[in-house]
Design a protein that fits this description.
By secondary structure, this protein is of the alpha+beta class. It has ten helices and twelve strands.
């Protein structure tokens, strides 16, 4: 029996969570749709109920709140470049946002959606008939990782480009759920498990991203991809140094979660790079080889350190 298709449009976060609670196990939140709808087309997402949160005004807007710049989760990636506060204090976020997808996608995709985009793998993100032919993997109810032939772990990659930039600049996020609101460091929501890559409950909604003001970040950003105008990342690196000399590296595209290395400008450069490379559990599930992507971590971080003068 085919499940009834339901499309719901809440106008508040609380209404959206109520709708989600009423449809547990059978719904998906929808915002810009650039990730969810592609996965549905491929048969990787088949929830009969879609809850469209794009009309919720409380998820929009960019404001200063005490020591943080608060960016609503529904802010469109392409429009971030017009905000004077982001341009003044967090230009790396604009740079990262403008590397996501193609120009048309960036006019629809939201920052919250990019931070929460589904992990990807060369053997998973294919058409349904392709996956049936090659055999189902751990991420689609199979019993083996096709990339590694292992049975214990899925290594589908975090491919968000804005997440490394935000994490390097110590971003926090606001989350609203049935038990109320909470605020956590962005990197803490990623589990490292490719099958269940985020430790958010099914009904939780990311409401905003918060960036610390007054830190005077010096930053550098790089992205590895086959076609500059379109591809998901094979490696994204972001480095930020604040006015007190605190240094933070964040990588995506080389592990199921963000790879994060913290230190200071006084730390040994080679040791920082070695730690970043070791932190990425890179496997051959990408168009670029594992060996090449690991080498590019060193290349990108050396370039960043040169540019930032450390």
């Amino acid at each position: 029996m085919i499940a009834e298709k339901i499309y719901l449009i809440p106008t508040s976060v609380n209404e959206a969570i109520k709708m989600a609670t009423d449809n547990l196990g059978s719904f998906k939140y929808l915002a810009g749709g650039t990730d969810v709808m592609v996965n549905r087309f491929q048969g990787n997402e088949e929830s009969p109920c879609l809850i469209d949160i794009s009309k919720i005004n409380e998820l929009k807007g960019i404001t200063k709140e005490k020591d943080f710049l608060r960016i609503g989760a529904l802010e469109i990636l392409e429009e971030l470049k017009f905000n004077t506060d982001i341009k003044a204090e967090f230009p790396m976020l604009i740079e990262a946002a403008l590397t996501v997808g193609a120009p048309l996608l960036r006019k629809t995709a939201t920052i919250g959606g990019n931070v929460l985009c589904e992990n990807r793998c060369l053997f998973y993100n294919q058409s349904k008939w392709w996956r049936e032919a090659v055999g189902y993997c751990l991420k689609c109810d199979g019993d083996i990782c096709i990339a590694t032939q292992g049975k214990n772990a899925c290594f589908s990659e975090l491919v968000s480009d804005t997440a490394p930039a935000l994490i390097a600049m110590d971003a926090e996020i606001e989350i609203l759920d049935v038990d109320g609101a909470k605020r956590v460091k962005l990197e803490d929501i990623y589990t490292g498990d490719g099958v269940a890559p985020r430790n958010l409950s099914e009904t939780a909604i990311l409401t905003a991203i918060l960036l610390p003001l007054g830190r005077e970040f010096k930053t550098d950003f790089h992205k590895l991809r086959e076609r500059e105008s379109l591809e998901f990342t094979s490696l994204t690196s972001a480095v930020a140094i604040d006015k007190n000399g605190k240094l933070k590296i964040a990588l995506s595209g080389v592990d199921p979660k963000a790879v994060v290395v913290e230190g200071t400008v006084e730390d040994n450069r080679a040791a920082l790079i070695k730690k970043a490379i070791k932190g990425g559990r890179t496997v051959d599930n990408d168009m670029y080889s594992r060996k090449y992507r690991r080498e590019m971590i060193s290349v990108y971080l050396n370039r960043s350190f040169e540019k930032l003068g450390i």
